[in-house]
Design a protein that fits this description.
Length: 216
């Protein structure tokens, strides 16, 4: 929880500075697709449920401040969908046929968790003029908006705030006074979606976007 309060403090400090327009050097929007998956671990039997990733649209608004020669602070405000698909299996042991194990596959179910994700990040760029490469790294807070699932056994308890990490790389292209860019981010969670016994559930996402940056 100490990391959670640290991330909240960073977001509050950066947000208060961004409220003053003189600190903002650019802002913009980016959109694309997110490939997300989840890890289900059931204890104490040490069983991991197999999952498949899901695709969802990604929409992000951002602002950049305190521009230096190579480093700036950027905050992303994203509407993020995270989740996975699973196929529930049951096992039957036929004792009349030499204890043959029969695996019965169930229907595929999909769970989706929708968040408002806030990511204050350090942005490091080459700043060589023309085409410019950059990297992003910082904490992330996901605020739960709502949850939906096809499963007959939905999660009863979830954490409303989840601490995560955002890391990414991108390339920007000059468009007169502004910039067109493409970017990829990896977003693992550092705290679980739920730690309701005996289930431990975590999110992770890979996000590919195309965006436009307005320079001030």
């Amino acid at each position: 929880m100490r990391w959670g309060w640290t991330a909240i403090g960073l977001i509050c400090i950066l947000g208060s500075q961004l409220a003053n327009a003189q600190f903002i050097s650019s802002f913009g929007v980016k959109g694309g697709v997110a490939l997300s998956n989840q890890s289900y671990q059931i204890s104490p039997i040490d069983y991991t449920l197999d999952t498949e990733p899901i695709l969802s649209p990604s929409l992000v608004f951002f602002a950049e401040a305190f521009q230096g020669d190579h480093f700036t602070l950027q905050t992303d405000f994203a509407f993020a969908c995270r989740g996975s698909s699973t196929t529930t299996e049951s096992i039957t042991v036929d004792h009349q046929n030499s204890d043959q194990v029969i695996v019965n596959e169930g229907e595929k179910v999909t769970s989706r968790h929708r968040y408002l994700a806030i990511s204050p990040m350090l942005r490091a760029r080459t700043n060589k003029g023309g085409i410019d490469a950059y990297a992003l790294l910082g904490p992330r807070l996901d605020f739960l908006l709502y949850y939906s699932t096809d499963s007959d056994y939905p999660l009863e308890e979830q954490n409303n705030v989840i601490l995560g990490l955002t890391m990414g790389v991108g390339v920007s292209f000059p468009m007169k006074q502004n910039l067109l860019f493409t970017e990829i981010q990896f977003q693992p969670d550092l705290s679980p979606v739920t730690n309701q016994e005996p289930l431990l559930l975590n999110n992770n996402s890979l996000v590919l976007t195309l965006g436009y940056r307005f320079k001030l």
